[in-house]
Task: inverse folding
DNA sequence: CTGCGCTTCTAGAACGTATTAGTCTGCGGC
DNA sequence: GCCGCAGACTAATACGTTCTAGAAGCGCAG
């Protein structure tokens, strides 16, 4: 009746912790029998099995996780360690979508995801070591791979099943899921080129990331074949730097006629800057985002973007991870996720007519 | 030299699992000494302590988590169970921000967050029971509280330290962090009323949620004092239903002059519908979002919204949870997070001149 | 009636650590 | 010179399960 107040601090002995012996006693069997019943092992008559399970259910008893784990049971936990400023995580739709997809697949197996945000790559590797030593996780997902990233090799050495997202380099110590950023970037440039754009700005992401490198490589690779001149400005993926880069690109003379952004957040920031500077989109400058989300679709004008199912990317990663976890450390394999598809929206158009005697000059040399 | 191929499936015995006995042997002491050293307990000379720690560090050895846990150690894990369609999680900026804030505070204590997405509330309670029985988590965060939600009482009975977000009802079995939705909604209505709006639409969230209820209550409470007539349409928080509700509100006759949305995603969807229907914002209809994010700030026009620091809400929740976890099951307390602040942007203005005997008739039925 | 195989069940030894109750050494005080 | 005591360290047990080896009961073939 009165609020549960009489219980002093820390005196909340709500549950008198059950053990398998209690269940055994109540069911009139041995602890071994309880173990067999709970784990669905053969060697028990249906009658006793049911009796045991009934008692266990009634008391809501489950084997103490730690004790099972001590006998080598899996922990049913998959770990993700992120080394980014925590505040930026919530801003990137990518991460939330990916995590949702990953978790939704893992949930089916009763596996939960353990998330830890750390300061830097050093702390990150320390966590991998710790988790490995403590047997805390059954598997790992590695994100934000950098060039010459030491983590895959470390994790492989530690013997933890793991999947990297976005890496397919050589050598490849871990199974990976990757997206063909190269082809995607080529697609964007081909599209812009076909509209008539030659002078293109590129607001790139963190250049030490592998996928950023692949995009930059693609730009170089099509330079001569398409005749595109691309100006890349590196950023840290933040909206602030995306806006700043846009300001620089739009202030330059001659000005590029199209800008490609490595993320949706930056594209939207850039769109804001253009509007603010009185540069009209798409008639003065075309904008393309390398990532799609509600941000780009609901912008004004809606932004032409590479779209992909990030949620599905998460589920695919989960599938691969589950495979690695059950197969053991086999030969690492690279699974390719579908290449993002270009969705043309209102932010792209042919470049403004060039200054010069003939308007059609722009199309010349096509 | 050759790729690690000769090792058959599952034969990757990379690490020959160290135990405390190994460390003891190498340091020339007993296992007890190792335990004392690792856990910083008194009873060892500084010399031997250092020797032991050096060996442990060298081999990257840590106590096997399960074994420690068996002796009653904490698991350093905080759990969150979500019962929502996984796909919607990534769309809501709220969740990602909150989780980032929560994790960033917990990381400081070396605590990680365990996330599980389930189908429905029933599965959710099952997970709470399971995690409790398995001693899997040290604490829980309960989100999306519903009216008469059985979960707080269940979790309290299970004896798991926990914090609920958004509940401050009576009785209150758990410590909670709550936001004054009532005051916030009153603020919105006062603002709209001061602009001259009387007939207002409200695209509400899931009505079984406690915070939705508090908002609806606020609407009723100011009905007479402000003279506002509010039309609430319940939705499931999805952009689709937000758009549909907007369509209904804008199609009604007489039409409301302002619409309040219970989330930013729905507000943006509604803005899209208005544009599509040729209803101009804010001259024909004003739009207010109950939640703020990059979505609302970058929309066109930017949407007037209640803004709050969701990241900070996460850190505040973490603080409370840590307190509960260390204090044990004390009297539950309700901590109030700052009330969201209304940020006026371009989506709100005075209502269009009323139809009447005057020249403004022209605008009628537009 | 003995012995064998099958099913059903159980005793007891792990698993790797933390802790309790020591043991052993050296040393100061009487 | 012996007692007692503090400091440094260790042996052994407990934690709660799982698993191996084996016991008990029972039917049945020989």
Result:
């Amino acid at each position: 009746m009165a609020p549960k107040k009489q219980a002093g601090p820390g005196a909340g002995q709500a549950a008198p912790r059950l053990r398998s012996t209690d269940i055994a006693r109540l069911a009139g069997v041995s602890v071994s029998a309880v173990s067999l019943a709970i784990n669905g092992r053969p060697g028990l008559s249906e009658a006793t099995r049911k009796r045991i399970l009934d008692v266990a259910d009634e008391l809501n008893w489950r084997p103490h996780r730690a004790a099972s784990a001590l006998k080598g049971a899996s922990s049913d936990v998959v770990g993700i360690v992120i080394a980014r400023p925590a505040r930026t995580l919530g801003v990137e739709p990518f991460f939330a979508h990916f995590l949702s997809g990953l978790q939704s697949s893992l949930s089916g197996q009763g596996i939960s995801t353990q998330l830890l945000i750390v300061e830097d790559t050093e702390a990150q590797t320390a966590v991998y070591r710790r988790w490995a030593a403590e047997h805390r996780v059954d598997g790992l997902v590695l994100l934000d791979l950098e060039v010459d990233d030491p983590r895959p090799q470390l994790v492989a050495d530690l013997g933890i099943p793991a999947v990297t997202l976005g890496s397919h380099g050589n050598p490849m110590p871990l199974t990976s899921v990757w997206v063909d950023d190269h082809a995607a970037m080529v697609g964007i440039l081909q599209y812009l080129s076909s509209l008539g754009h030659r002078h293109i700005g590129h607001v790139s992401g963190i250049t030490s990331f592998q996928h950023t490198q692949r995009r930059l490589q693609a730009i170089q690779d099509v330079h001569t074949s398409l005749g595109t001149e691309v100006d890349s400005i590196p950023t840290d993926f933040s909206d602030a730097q995306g806006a700043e880069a846009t300001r620089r690109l739009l202030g330059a003379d001659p000005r590029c006629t199209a800008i490609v952004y490595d993320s949706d957040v930056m594209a939207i920031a850039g769109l804001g800057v253009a509007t603010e500077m009185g540069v009209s989109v798409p008639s003065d400058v075309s904008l393309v985002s390398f990532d799609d989300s509600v941000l780009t679709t609901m912008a004004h004008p809606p932004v032409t973007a590479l779209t992909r199912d990030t949620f599905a990317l998460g589920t695919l990663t989960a599938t691969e991870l589950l495979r690695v976890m059950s197969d053991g450390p086999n030969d690492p394999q690279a699974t390719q996720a579908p290449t993002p598809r270009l969705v043309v929206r209102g932010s792209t158009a042919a470049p403004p007519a060039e200054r010069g005697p003939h308007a059609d000059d722009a199309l010349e040399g096509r």
User: Anything to note?
Assistant: The two ends of chain A are 85 Å apart (CA to CA). Residues 19-21, 31-32, 34-36, 39, 41, 63-64, 66-73 of chain A lie near DNA strand D (CB under 10 Å from a C1'). Residues 20-70 of chain A form a domain with the 434 Repressor (Amino-terminal Domain) fold (CATH 1.10.260.40). Chain A touches chain B through 78 residues (CB under 8 Å).
